[in-house]
């Protein structure tokens, strides 16, 4: 019965929200990361003025392991910036969404690297396990462990709490929110959530319109609407008003209203669907707003 209902939901409501048992839409069939040479689908493509010099693109792997795993997985990461300046630079840890791999999000990472003056901030992006060339299979606990591995790497390079900004887009709002609300190796100074979802429960309700618990359809326990209550750091929420994947009223707005910290700012982007916020906002406006928030202005 559960299997039948699952497939009814998956196909019957796919135009509104893609549901699967773990919400992951990963692609681990690639042989290499192509970055600027990637020709697959992307939300937007920046012009040549956003090119990152090869000397500032660093690809590497990190060992990631949950408390229940007996051996680690290698996850892939890319740092944009000068490695020798991590001990003085402000760094944005970018937690991407549920789609494919880092090539799909490369344009977004480049845009953040151009926030303010070019390469003013370092940007660390990574693929969760099972995405791209990262080993393993996607799991919620694995996603948190992978994010922690990145934080440990940044700390080993000299990053301190007051220079860390967590940025979570869509699915990435979960590890960004979780590790800001309950910090470990590093305590983020600020948090940015773009198109976050409120909880797995609300996601199922939005997609199915059935009064049934989320646990019936997904194993995810993510609840950003509750985790954000523990966050005291400055919080920026950005969301498209035309988001058909995660409706801003039932997801992002709930998270925003539940925040009780020291400072909150929001940007609602007219006409923007789920992946269209930076482009519909305008790249220059997006960059300026990121800079103002990160610098506390």
What are the main properties of this structure?
297 residues; 10 strands; 29% helix; globular
Helix amount: 25-40%
Which stretches of 5+ consecutive residues score pLDDT under 50?
1-22, 207-217
Architecture, according to CATH?
A: 3-Layer(aba) Sandwich
Shape: globular
Tell me the strand order in the biggest sheet: 2-3-6-4-7-8-9-10
Question: How large is the count of helical segments?
Answer: 9
Number of domains: 1
Span of the ends, CA to CA? 54 Å
Structural class: alpha/beta
CATH domain topology: Rossmann fold
Helix and strand sequence: HEEEEEHEHEHEHHEHEHH
As an assembly, this protein is single chain
Question: What's the rounded overall pLDDT mean?
Answer: 88
Strand % is 15-25%
Summarize the structure.
The chain is α/β, with parallel strands linked by helices.
